[in-house]
Amino acid sequence: MVADRLLLPCPISQREREAGSRCVVSMAANTITIQDPRNPHVRRTFTFDYAYWSHSGFVRNRDGLFAAEEPGGRYADQGSVFNDLGQGILENALQGYNATLLAYGQTGSGKSYSMVGYGPNKGLVPTLCERLFQAVRANQDSCQCQVFFSMLEIYNEQVIDLLSRGGRSLGGLRVREDQLRGFYVEGLRRVPCDSATRVEQLMEQGTRTRTTAATHMNANSSRSHMLIIAQLKQIFSKENITKQSNINLVDLAGSERQRSSGLEADRLKEGTAINVSLTTLGNVISSLADAALGKKAVHIPYRDSVLTKLLQSALGGNSRTVMIATLSPSDICYEESLSTLRYAERAKRIQNKAVVNESPTERLVKELKAENAKLVLRLSRLGQEGRKTEEETKELRRLLTHNEMQIKAIQTLWEQHLQEALKDWEMQYATITQERRMMQMHPYMLNINEDPQLSGVVKLFIQEGDWDVGLSDLAHIGTSRAIPIKGLGIQERHAVFTNEDRRVSVTPVAGAKVMVNGLPITYRTELQHLDRLILGSSSTYLFIGFPCERGADDWSRYDYDYFQSELAAAEGIHIPTLCEDQSQASGEPSVESSQTDPSLLAVFYDYIKLIPMVTEANQMSQELSKGVEFKLEIKNLAMSDCRGRDLEKDIAVRVTSLENKQVWMWSKAKFINRKFLMEEVYHQQKQQQQQAESALGEGQGSGSKRLVLARDRDPFWDPLEPLHLGSAHLWLQSLAFRIPLEEQVEVLGPEGTEEAILQAQLLPCSPMGLPLGEEDILIDPTELLGKRLDFQLFLEQCCGLRWLKEAKNRGVQIGLRVYDCPQSFYTPAVWHNANPLLEHRVHFSAMRTSQDLLNYLQSSALVLELWGLQEGCADMVSSLEGLRLTPEGSFIIDKASAPDPSMLECPASVSDLRSSLRALHQDMEQLRSANAALRKENSSLREQLNRGPGPEGGRGRVERHGSLRPSCDAELARALKVFYHSMTSLRAQLQRLRRHRPSEEADLLGLRLFVDEQSRLLRDFGEQLELSVTALKQDVATIVRRKRERSGIWS
């Protein structure tokens, strides 16, 4: 049976706290409740056999152990977990059952803490081994116990023996199938152990091998599975019974889901060998859960991956199995935590039928003894019957002797194994002792790995003199003073470390990549204690100086993220600059770090996580001659929606072909998937090279051949698609007053760079598209309610296209979406011109303006998206699906308030349309004539009023009241129009001020010139703003004064 334990292993991390995360998981008894951070009313509840809380409510005691703050608190320490779970596994093993412990959860949620532990807080594995050998010692009088220990890793569907004495075999170890044993790893080393201390030593050895293998294979440890197999054999001499059980302790790869920031699907699905094992494990668990619910003819896909082959008996056969599902309580991990809970929910339905195991070795001994007894009986009968011949006697005695030797060999195998293991340990102990002695004498480099368990394992000592650092095969250099390292981007001879006069320096070899404290170096550089080094693409080391320099320094703060943060800072990406860029883009003042936008912090941590992956992808592209360059970008850093609200920020990877300047933009999820596919191609190429070199050495080959992939299978290539280059905002407020707007808007890229200048106009018009006059300007936008509104968007020209400056064989399109239109509109594509004329006009109509549309016009902008095209890329086409047209051919918006579609039918023929147009023109001419007559009458009335009140003053007063408001309203509308135009100019000036920055290479004189220029621009901006506001005040005052004067005539 599979029992599930839910563990919250640690508090919200420092990273998650800085990102403003909060806890969304709660626990009551064995029930876990998780809350959707986007919708607090949505809660999901799951119940399991055990649930443990270790998120809060604990303290560290004097011994370094974590314990509950108060007696009886809900915090569960490692001891409580072992008593509930580990003790049951141990008892099952001692009874002769197979037992399995699976740890499942996303990276960083506490799988390793639960399985192995840290420091004095020992996890399940070391505690289980201690209790196992305590039980062995307690039962040594009644039975003989033999314990064998194995440790392996599965990465990219390859099995690596972590305890192997020799080198790693090409392609890893093979998984075989036996009728009796089931699936097993051929050639996997089984090391006999007689104490828990020996097991810890072997685990340390396996961790060291795992670190080296991860470096050599360019592997990410969070994507690999680690299996520890402890085989327990109990021989009960008196009862003549042997019990044998396998204890499988499995630390599964990180279960985090790759969430795509967009809706695009990668043509190369994430079905790579790296991800097959975890995916297949989920399929197996789902199938077993369905079978447990009574579904018939369920296929269990055990054979689809190496991991599920080896765990077949643990998952659905002869084993008692426990699954630990670990969660992160942070809201930013909600999706991953919910996925883990659902995974465990399916797993707990599985039912296994475990049986006590009888050792095949014991059966063999029984069979041999039985055969010997028959041989002795035959010999005695031959002697009694007098038919004894020399040849037959010899044959029988030979068989008897052979069987006795086999029995003796089987019985003495354990002692021989122990002796061999003891010799191995003595050699390792000498090496460890030598290493500790050198740590007290020389400076050294300490490896830093993404997995904290693999950090600090490898130490490269720098003794007196010059030391060449590079690939392991350095025989041709002719020196023994070499430090061999392997990794992506490491050259045969990569750098020279010099230790003289108690100073250590590093000198890169020409073409080698060496970085110190986040900055690349090309010349000899002296190292200081706790300097950070990166050799090649991602081989990270911390320099530990001479013993006299060390003091009580704690190097644990220099973790893998620290290295990547330094690299990001060197590229200008750190929290202060991100906040500054965002505030400049939004026009809001910068906030303090304590109020930093959590989304910015989340993006920053994604950025530093992807830095090494992008570096490795670039290195693989270079070594495989793909001619592709990858670069990280922050998507939507300086972009906003139609209401000016910041868009959700994310990481994207810009992919550029160095040969023809073709560009792709990949989402984070797509790049990660492609990165794993690239690793497969890279490993296949390296294996081919090794095989070719081996064949060449034996005289059977002619050199290595490059791996050839079809284009549609090449992870470095993709079909070309339009690229979103940036957006511009054209505010619609003027339409609410029926005032035309002509503006030059700046198209800003995702990171705030200026991509182009777009000349656009918003023109209120008649249903036939004719421009409105000044008399149609509104002073109160509510006058539009219930009335028809027509306007045209005219895109005139796009200037200074950065996209075209980089390569001339490109084109652009402008896309937009208005209000409730379901489809986007696109301009025709224009090619090979950095300043193209667009001259694109679109007519929109609202048949009866609603309050919602009016609010939209007053508070929103039209977002004009700039799309980049490349040769071979299809143009973007406007779709008319779901759109409705007026009889005049304009697009209808505000559909909710539009009349019935049957009233908007087009005229039956072209002649009807022409006659309607002619009638509208006649009506317009009549309205204009009437308007001119009214103006003339108003002028005469004004002259009469200016001559003074007459006997008919009362009637004139009434008439005056009728003409006063339109005159004043028109004057006020004209004043507002002038003010809007001046504000447009001021907005452009303000944008220039935001973009105006000093050069990064400017000296003191350059900074002074920048300050003077900035002061002048600010002064001009202030003067123009003051003039505009003053002019508006004067115009309004004049209008009010005239109104009062005219009103005073009638008083």
Automatic annotation (TrEMBL):
<protein>
    <recommendedName>
        <fullName>Kinesin-like protein 6</fullName>
    </recommendedName>
</protein>
<feature type="domain" description="Kinesin motor">
    <location>
        <begin position="1"/>
        <end position="350"/>
    </location>
</feature>
<keyword id="KW-0813">Transport</keyword>
<dbReference type="InterPro" id="IPR008984">
    <property type="entry name" value="SMAD_FHA_dom_sf"/>
</dbReference>
<comment type="similarity">
    <text>Belongs to the TRAFAC class myosin-kinesin ATPase superfamily. Kinesin family.</text>
</comment>
<feature type="region of interest" description="Disordered">
    <location>
        <begin position="936"/>
        <end position="962"/>
    </location>
</feature>
<keyword id="KW-0505">Motor protein</keyword>
<dbReference type="InterPro" id="IPR027417">
    <property type="entry name" value="P-loop_NTPase"/>
</dbReference>
<dbReference type="GO" id="GO:0008017">
    <property type="term" value="F:microtubule binding"/>
</dbReference>
<comment type="function">
    <text>Microtubule-dependent motor protein required for mitochondrion morphology and transport of mitochondria in neuronal cells.</text>
</comment>
<keyword id="KW-0496">Mitochondrion</keyword>
<keyword id="KW-0472">Membrane</keyword>
<dbReference type="GO" id="GO:0031966">
    <property type="term" value="C:mitochondrial membrane"/>
</dbReference>
<keyword id="KW-0067">ATP-binding</keyword>
<keyword id="KW-0547">Nucleotide-binding</keyword>
<dbReference type="Pfam" id="PF00225">
    <property type="entry name" value="Kinesin"/>
</dbReference>
<dbReference type="GO" id="GO:0003777">
    <property type="term" value="F:microtubule motor activity"/>
</dbReference>
<dbReference type="GO" id="GO:0007018">
    <property type="term" value="P:microtubule-based movement"/>
</dbReference>
<dbReference type="GO" id="GO:0005524">
    <property type="term" value="F:ATP binding"/>
</dbReference>
<dbReference type="InterPro" id="IPR036961">
    <property type="entry name" value="Kinesin_motor_dom_sf"/>
</dbReference>
<feature type="binding site">
    <location>
        <begin position="105"/>
        <end position="112"/>
    </location>
    <ligand>
        <name>ATP</name>
    </ligand>
</feature>
<dbReference type="InterPro" id="IPR001752">
    <property type="entry name" value="Kinesin_motor_dom"/>
</dbReference>
<keyword id="KW-0175">Coiled coil</keyword>
